[in-house]
Amino acid sequence: MSEPTSRPTAPENAAPSAGEGPDFDKGGGILPAIAQDAQTGEVLMLAFMNAESYAETLATGRAVYFSRSRNRLWRKGEESGNVQLVREVRIDCDGDAILLKVEQVGGAACHTGHRSCFYRRVTKEGLEVVGTPLFDPAQVYGKKSG
Ligand SMILES: [Zn+2]
Fold first, then answer.
1. pLDDT in tens, 9-27
2. Cα of 23 to ligand 1 centre, how many Å?
3. Quick one: which of 42, 51, 53, 101 has the most CB atoms within 10 Å?
4. How far is the CA of 146 from the centre of ligand 1 (A)?
């Protein structure tokens, strides 16, 4: 159980060590990012990040994603004001998924006004809506879609 006198060299397929960031190449430039309530652990949403959005998230302390549909950076809350203050960032074991522990300003992460994007429960009878929206999307986003 004593310390080895010489450090063995890491094998080429070793997991990323501390200090390295996510490996965006594994996802073709984008990786999934989960936003979780920093206090309750509730999963709020799943989005995607590229290296640029990840760097801006770390630099600003606010969640910045990459919108695949708009093909550009998506600064969460840029329209609604419901930004996510990032309290902690974690990277999974093989460096291809990102977890953000956030404080969700406004209480709702979803553009529908629901606290979590996962507000629909799958049942044998179909989808069941869980909880009620915290805001009216039409008032927050106006007539614009998205
Ligand atoms: Zn949503």
1. 545 555 545 557 899 999 9
2. 26
3. 53
4. 10
Question: What's the gap in Å between 60 CA and the centre of ligand 1?
Answer: 23
Which residues make beta-bridge pairs with 129? 120
Rounded Cα–Cα distance for residues 99 and 94 (Å)? 13
Lowest mean pLDDT among 33-47, 59-73, 96-110, 131-145: 131-145
Measured in Å, residue 44 CA sits from the centre of ligand 1 at 8
Smallest CA-to-CA distance from 48 within 109, 110, 98 is with: 98
Determine the length of the chain: 146
Report the separation in Å between the CA atom of 92 and the middle of ligand 1, taken as the mean of its atom positions.
23
Name residue 140's beta-bridge partners.
none
* CA separation, residue 94 to residues 35, 51, 121, 146 (Å): 18, 16, 30, 33
Q: How many angstroms does the Cα of residue 45 sit away from the middle of ligand 1?
A: 6
Domains within the chain, CATH numbers bracketed? 27-141 (3.10.20.810)
